[in-house]
Amino acid sequence: MFSLRYRRAASKSDKNHNDHNSPIPLYQYGHEDMQDDYDSKLKKQHANMDNQTGFTVQDYIQLVMVTILAASVRVWTLNPTQPISLSELEIVNQIDWYIQSKFFIGTSPPLAGLLYTKLAQLAGYTGNANLLFDGQSFGDFPAQPLRTFASILGVMMIPMGYTTIRLLGHSQLAAILVAGLLAIENGMVTQSQFFSSEGLVYALTAASMLSWAYVYKIQQRDSTKTSWTWQSLTGLLIGCAMSTKWQGICGFVIIWAATVRDTWKMLSEKNKAMSQILRHLSSRVVSIGALPVAVYLGVFYIHFQLVPNAGDHDLLISSKLKYSLEGNHFKGTYQEIPYGSRVVLKHVGTAGGYLNSHNARYATGSTQQIVSLYPFTDINNIWIIQKGTELWNSSQPFETVKTNDHIRLEHFVSKRKLHSHNHRPPMSSKKEHHEVTAYGDRHLRDNNDSWWARVLNKDDKIDPSDKTPIKALSSRLRLLHSRGCYLMSHNIALPAPALNQQEVSCMSSASKALSTFVIEAVYHEGLEGKPKISYSVPSFFEKLNEVHDIMANFPNVMHDRLATVPLAEAAKSKNGGSQRSTPLGYLLRARNTLIWDELSGRSVYMIFNLVIQRLVLFNFVAYGILLGFKCFAQKRQIQWSASNWSSNEGTMWSVHESNDHRDVVHGNSLEYFLAGSILYTIGLSLLPSHTQNMADLLPCIYLCIGATVLNIESLTNRLGRARLLVFLAVFGLAAHSFLSLSPLAYGTTPWTQDDCRASGLKSLDCLRFPSMTQIGSEIDSDSTQKRVVLVDVPGQRYPFDYVLGEEFDADKSIHELRSQRYTQEAEQATGVQRYHRATQTVGYTQEQNDEWADKINKAGLARVEAEIKKQNEKKKVETEKAAKEALKAEAEKGTKNPAEDSGKASVAEVQAEAKAKAKAEATKESHAQEVKEQVQEVEIKN
Any residues with CB less than 8 A from the CB of 917 and at least 6 apart, and which? Predict the structure, then answer.
């Protein structure tokens, strides 16, 4: 029995046989009216397929069925009361900032935060959730509507996958298997339980693939036809995915790879005019090139408009951006910088803040006074610019500091000089780094206090002959030391007692980015009455560029005092830890990510369906072998096809399409999914590692499932009805794997260590699960079996011990412990202090500063007096020695005539002794007067 579709296709083939006097097959004979009726049905079918999706009633029924299956898997276990995850906590914080219009910077573009903020507001949320740590209950925050929305997105993946496969012309059986595997993929089920940016990127990427399938379907009819609607929708969805997380750009790459391939094929077709090809390519550039970029920029523009106020991240941004926010006030500063000015220098290359020195000494090295970068406004940030050869005082003429001038920087409070020497800094032990300290006092001169002010021009170069006056705010300054090194700083915190301030050193090979400062504030008596300048308002692209620089280097810039470990250390441990892998490792090996767990055995892990992972691996290997064999067959001129289309029931192809054409299109679909999954994996590997997690692989898993099913369909086409058994076997194995791991996806059924070991998952830490089969059951009251677990609290992992069998009580105690620790830390680290590494020093009063400066000054005066006294004693000794030598000479002269001059000699001795005494007294009085004058001179200068 042959279907009409096969009969029609076969009749065309047999007509060729008739031309060669071949016998006419029996199935070609039929009534003419039946043939006319068939042709009319065929034309109607073609008209429907050209204008609509080509779906049959059976397709719509199957769509409803797979959607119900997806909803039963995704929604029925939805539990809004389960603890908040870390990714959800980030979204909640962003929602609060948006509601309060506070400026902030996230790890990803802001579309997810914007969307969930709107949903939370529609649910009646007004802000201030006060959620501090993952594992905490939501309280008054409306978690249910947001998690429901995330689950609906998860449900929509299944009908989108089904529709995409059918639009590409493949069988209903293949589409059903794709939808079924998507429904029972454990990682996708887990992701749909939580609202996060990863789930939104997954949904938008899948939607863009569906939209592109419509474009592909239209292109199969006419390769030069432009579908502005579907192309624009594809570009819009890609732009939204990119605006949610940078991982969305991988979908952009996939679509453009397909576009380049299609354009290249069109160029090889001689019947296509170049004008048609250019018009077609131009439409792609506009719709899937410019439109996604415009959406991305538009999302950031909306973000900036919604957060105009000063926020908690103000210490991490440049002063220009900071003072453009409402609530931050910059009083302005004088532009000219004369000698004797009090100035504040801010580091340009990092968020460390201002050049600072406070009343603390290095514990190692020279043990001299610490110089660091400090983000808070403090009197210890003020320095006085002095000439390299003399100290300035108010009697000196007004003289501005010029480029390449020899200067010294004197700390305003302590009067110590910015100094560098051959000691190594505490954190940077390389030879090119030299320790920078505040050293000496006003009465001490040292060649290691000498610096040269070198200003970068517009080309980022230094002109040694330039003598242009240095300007506040605009001149980018580099300080060259007499040792040939530049003053610099980097994102490394100093140890105690520096209060986590940023290390400053002098480095011979310092980059311009890390050794550039700007003078932000200037004060001088001679400038009073002159106009002040201020920062200009940054443009949109200046804001965009700065925000992206911080996002790209987020762990090194951002610091959260409520985190267990600093973000930079957490990123490093993830990159090197056993639970962290490359995107390819996540894809091909069993890996997991812990979302939350309890001692009682309830836990949620992000983990992929093991059967699906192995099918994906098999698919890549099998396709590689088939592709190699195909290349070999072409080389040997053997007619062979990787996919046999002799049986096409349930496909959406036209009955007039040749088998060869169908084979080509099937190969194109398979290559599209395979190439897409490969490009997505490579793209993830190139993105910053701190932006990645296991959930970012979900779009790649989506593509891999499509490629795997298409390959299975290709390999089983000759099996007829037995193919259904293959599809059922594949789905059955995947369903068994899903059910065995479902407790980790839903977190409803407690697991024990035995369950963990029975799963065979080596990536799981089975010690995190309770060892008893009956959790919480009664045990011997005399039992002393205890277990110690590490609990995450701010700044550390706290060891917590409990008695086995009391897991439920231990979970409550741990929750209370964490709540207490996080609340205490949150009360101390509020606002901007929470998100910067440095701790603000205790505010010094004017009396304390004066006492500190007076102590240093007195020590300097004492040293000067001691030096003068030492010099005077040295002169006295020399004078007495000279007098003795003179007396000795006189005595030797007198001994030559003892008989005649005995009386004269005694008289001469007496006179010489008297003269020596008188001379010594005069010298003593002279030296005393000299000391008095020098001390008075020092006090006047001070």
Answer: none
**Residue 856's pLDDT band (boundaries 50, 70, 90)?**
confident
Q: Are residues 195 and 299 in the same domain?
A: yes
Task: Identify the three-state secondary structure at position 40.
Answer: helix
Give the 3-state secondary structure of residue 853.
Answer: helix
727: its two tokens = 């599809």
The owner of tokens 């780094």 is: 433
Query: 498 and 449: one domain?
Result: yes
The pLDDT of 214-243, averaged and rounded, is 86
Q: How many CB atoms lie within 10 A of CB 337?
A: 24
Please tell me which of 310-314, 573-577, 799-803 the model is most confident about, judged by mean pLDDT.
310-314
Q: Which range has the worst mean pLDDT, 26-40, 220-234, 270-284, 288-302?
A: 26-40
DSSP 3-state of 504: strand
Specify the higher pLDDT residue, 502 or 851: 502
Range of weakest confidence among 16-25, 83-92, 237-246, 404-413: 16-25
Q: What are phi and psi of 459, to 5 degrees?
A: -90, 10
> Do residues 296 and 368 share a domain?
no
pLDDT digits (tens, 9 = 90+) for 319-341: 999 999 999 999 999 999 999 99
Position 652 scores a pLDDT of 43
Percentage of the chain exceeding pLDDT 90: 43
Question: Residue 341 is part of which domain span?
Answer: 331-534
Of residues 169, 273, 276, the one with CA closest to residue 216: 169
- Residue 614, token pair as written in the block: 């192995």
> How many Å apart are CA 612 and CA 608, to the nearest integer?
8
Instruction: Give the list of residues 6+ apart from residue 864 with CB closer than 8 angstroms, or none.
Output: 443, 934, 935, 938
Cα separation, 82 vs 194, in Å, equals: 10
Q: Residue 129: exposed, middle, or buried by beta-carbon count in 10 A (0-12, 13-18, 19+)?
A: buried
722-746 and 698-715 helices, crossing angle to 10°: 160
525 and 662 co-located in one domain: no
123 and 35 in a common domain = no
Gap between the Cα atoms of 558 and 550, Å rounded: 8
Q: How many CB atoms lie within 10 A of CB 341?
A: 24
CA–CA separation, 601 and 589 (whole Å) = 25
Rounded CA-CA distance 354/377 in Å is 8
Instruction: Specify the number of domains making up the chain.
Output: 4
**Over 70: is that where the pLDDT of 537 sits?**
yes
Residue 126 structure tokens: 């007004």
On whether residue 568 sits in a domain, the answer given is no
- For residue 6, the model assigns a pLDDT of 36
In a domain, 157, yes or no: yes
* pLDDT at res. 912: 61
Comparing 148-152, 216-220, 337-341, 596-600, the range with the smallest average pLDDT is 216-220
Same domain, 684 and 702: yes
Residues 153, 43 share a domain:
no
User: What is the spatial distance between Cα 322 and Cα 546, in angstroms, rounded to a whole number?
Assistant: 11
Contact (Cβ atoms closer than 8 angstroms) between residue 857 and residue 441: yes
Question: 781 in a domain, yes or no?
Answer: no
The token duo for 132 is 């501090």
Q: What is the 3-state secondary structure (H, E, C) of 101-145?
A: CECCCCCCCCHHHHHHHHHHHHCCCCCCCCCCCCCCCCCCCCHHH
Can you name the residues that pair with 309 across neighbouring β-strands? 102, 326
Residues 10 and 100 in one domain: no
Given 700, 723, 742, the domain boundary residue is 742
Q: What is the pTM of this model?
A: 0.83
